[in-house]
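User: What would this chain look like folded?
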Amino acid sequence: MSRRRRCSMTETRKPEADGLAFRRDAIGCFRFVRATLDETTGRVELVYAFDDGPELVEALQFPGAPFALDAPRRVAVDAALRLLHLIAGVSYYKAALPPELVVEGEAPDPALAALVTDVYEQGLGEFAYRNGLSLRGRIRFQAGAPAAAAPALGLKTHALTAIGGGKDSLVSIEALRAAGVAQSVSFIGASPLIRTCAEHTGLPVLTIGRQLAPQLLAFNKQGAWNGHIPVTAVNSAILVLAALLCDADQVVFSNERSASYGSVIPGTGEVNHQWSKGWDFERGFADYVRAHVAADLSYYSLLRPLSELAVARRFAANDRYDAVFSSCNRNFHLTGPRPESRWCGVCPKCHFVFLALAPFMPKPRLTAIFGRNLLDEPALAEGFDALIEYGAHKPFECVGEGREARAALIELATRPVWREDALVRRFARDIAPHIEPVVLAPLLEPSGEHGIPESLWTRISETFQP
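Assistant: Here's the prediction, encoded as structure tokens.
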């Protein structure tokens, strides 16, 4: 066992200890204290601390315990637990951004250190931009010895398919079902909306409980840095651990190729709200899992070859989930009001999903889903302008590329059923003459850049054609 490494700062503070307030700028060190799994109960604890302050304990509950792990599986679980501990720490590190990061116990191998550095630096890109910060060169994980290559564990052919309650994961679930892939729809937390969607699939449901360290909300009220984190990276690491515990050889997400493109901001460059949904993260994370966790555990996004519009087209072909799905992120905010119905109708996600579905879905069906026609509301013009990157950059939301939004509006402007709606008419009259035209059909073609296992891709690739 490696000796415990302590912060090297000559003076340390104790946030929330002995009644002291959280003093963000006085903190010198963030510590990854330990990560534990109780095999008899399925409880995982991820423990962190600032300086020598109190322990911040995040708890997860994995179903199926007790777990009987043989020696190779235990080694893989330990590697997955270490991966999760380091990635999930981003939620706490960002509160103070201290200059020193200390991993107590075993230091990460060089490949892991490089991966988590990328997750923190790139995944906190929007957070840094909104707070006027620069993280380049600031995040340093001290690496230890290289890790041994991971063996194959003989995992059962079964997919843990992440479900988020929106159209994308439902498209993946139905594609896997059609391909004959055994799967459990899987989610983290206790969202009633996601649970309803999951149960509506009629498939086995895997629910993982997660409780953030309670001090984090208190820190936020005392001036902690706050903002967007790479939550898909955290959830990916949670499901990799779940796959080892539940004996599944695939972890499947539903991130389309559009997620790899961020918001282009004048004077700053590209900032991607969805970085951990993008191809760069998927490829690096999947490579590490195969190389150093379990050689027969595949992590991939089934929708990577598709644009957002191609995903919308596939979703529109099946009305099974019309009454239960929602892509509106306001349903999942930790704080603040939530929409009374499943769609708030005013956020960028609502706007984009409505626009993306409109070319492929009968108008009465779409307006019944949303309870209104968003394209006939002049007050929403500014939001739709941002989607097409007209006078504004792409919103910091999980929405498609500007060219996809433009292609959809250009297409709708040709259709009698849509062209008289206020925002479609405005687009055709005031905007279309001043922008480069975009044709819809080429955006529906799948790309060849993806990590889908070859045997599965052979079975589904034809169905992905427009």
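Confidence is low (pLDDT under 50) at residues 1-5, 9-13, 15-19, 333-339. If you want, I can go into more detail on any region.
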